[in-house]
Automatic annotation (TrEMBL):
Cofactor field: Zn(2+)
Family that this chain belongs to: Belongs to the aldolase class II family. MtnB subfamily.
Keyword Metal-binding: yes
Binding-site list for Zn(2+): 101, 103
Keyword Chaperone included in the entry's annotation: no
Pathway assigned in UniProt: Amino-acid biosynthesis; L-methionine biosynthesis via salvage pathway; L-methionine from S-methyl-5-thio-alpha-D-ribose 1-phosphate: step 2/6
Organism: Streptomyces sp. 900105245
Domain Class II aldolase/adducin N-terminal: residue ranges: 15-199
Protein name, as recorded: Methylthioribulose-1-phosphate dehydratase
GO molecular function, one term: methylthioribulose 1-phosphate dehydratase activity
Gene: mtnB
Length: 202
């Protein structure tokens, strides 16, 4: 996708996000219209393609996407995700090119069990988020939920560990990011695997 964020770029981004959403929905991670996805189309000014609000994320088409600015406000298209402002904040503060938000049972359950953060170590799967399997302890932060995206963004920025491209939002779900939609997908699948292991395996 080029830097312009034009109509064709938006439709292309919509097709990519629809395919990613269908995959996550097939795993049961976006039930009942939950979750949202975004991809950065330009950095200066910051413009993101974000999934439209309230849609069944397993049935998105390339048209179910909205161009938003750095505050998450619609620039082109219909009503963006209610969490568009948080996507923009994550993209701006981490430099990520794509952001994934899913409502997984494991993220909410582990957020309840470990409200201070989830310690991860000695797992081969840590390589999937760019960490060595052994010798380091990485924390997956847990932040309190808020309906105010600015407040939630402050909490996420304060808590995030630069070694871990993800944050659990307590009672809500999981935010994960990556350089592009494909890497964000891989990070999401790895982090969710780690959460499921912590929930069931220890
Ligand atoms: C039942 S989903 C509640 C809203 C939410 O948390 C979510 O992720 C979906 O919101 P959107 O506006 O992106 O559809
Ligand atoms: Zn949500």
């Amino acid at each position: 996708m080029s830097a312009g964020g034009g109509a064709r770029d938006l439709a292309e981004a919509g097709a990519v996000l629809a395919a990613e959403a269908a995959r996550f929905a097939s795993f049961g991670w976006m039930r009942g219209t939950s979750g949202n996805l975004s991809v950065v189309l330009s950095r200066d000014p910051l413009r993101l393609a974000v999934t439209a609000s309230g849609r069944d994320k397993g049935e998105l088409t390339s048209a179910d996407v909205v161009l938003v600015d750095e505050r998450g406000a619609a620039v082109q298209g219909g009503r963006p995700s209610a969490e568009a402002a948080l996507h923009a904040r994550v993209a701006a503060s981490t430099g990520a090119g794509a952001v994934v938000h899913v409502h997984t049972v494991a993220s909410v359950a582990m957020g309840r069990r470990k409200p201070g953060g989830i310690l991860l170590r000695d797992l081969e799967m840590l390589k999937g988020v760019g960490q060595p399997a052994h010798g380091v302890e990485v924390t997956l932060p847990v932040v309190a939920n808020s309906q105010d995206m600015a407040e939630l963004g402050d909490r996420l920025e304060a808590a995030r560990d630069p070694r871990m491209p993800a944050v659990v939002v307590a009672g809500h779900g999981l935010y994960v990011w990556g350089a592009d939609p494909r890497q964000a997908r891989h990070h999401t699948e790895v982090v969710e695997w780690l959460l499921e292991l912590e929930l069931t395996g220890r």
